[in-house]
Design goal:
The protein has 167 residues and is of the alpha+beta class. Helices cover 32% and strands 32% of the residues. Helix 1 packs antiparallel against helix 2. The mean pLDDT is 95.
């Protein structure tokens, strides 16, 4: 149950297990939405812990009652990839929930924590470049679709959805 989930600030000691959760979640949960020829080259680029994000103190892990990491996600002031900072704007970053724990409200708890913290640091808008799989999740939390985009990742232009939420 989501009641047994605790949200903590991630540390570098969590990085190895974050990598496992992210790799497993992205490989399994994105596969119904992307052709293998498109997804396979991207998985190696997105399925690892983002050390800069973890060190920022704005990245969180969800732990079950036994202390096992079952999800992660966070936010930054800078945009993904380029790190461009626009005052008042935050960016949702690197969310993943272990596929075996999907549908239990873990992602929502991580997102609410991220939004609360972003607002406390004077963000009034939160942007998200969501995968096709995650679009419904973010829409269910009030994000509005702005555009369908293609994010350059290695040799691939990866289809995503740019979304926005006023907080």
């Amino acid at each position: 149950m989501a009641d047994q989930i605790h949200i903590d600030i991630a540390t570098m000691e969590d990085a190895p297990v974050i990598g496992v959760v992210v790799a497993r979640a992205y490989a399994e949960l994105l596969s119904p939405f992307y052709e293998p020829a498109l997804l396979t080259p991207v998985l190696g680029l997105i399925s690892h812990p983002n050390e800069k994000l973890i060190r920022s103190g704005r990245f969180y892990v969800a732990r079950d009652g036994a202390g096992k990491v079952v999800g992660c996600g966070g936010w930054s002031h800078g945009s993904p990839g380029r790190g461009i900072i626009v005052p008042g704007t935050a960016h949702v970053r690197h969310f993943a929930v272990d596929p075996g724990q999907s549908g239990r409200g873990i992602g929502g708890r991580l997102l609410r924590r991220s939004l609360r913290e972003a607002k406390s640091e004077r963000a009034s808008v939160v942007m998200c470049d969501a995968t096709l799989m995650a679009e419904a999740f973010y829409a269910g939390h009030g994000f509005q679709t702005e555009a369908f985009i293609r994010v350059p990742m290695g040799s691939v232009a990866f289809p995503c959805v740019r979304m926005r939420l006023a907080i």
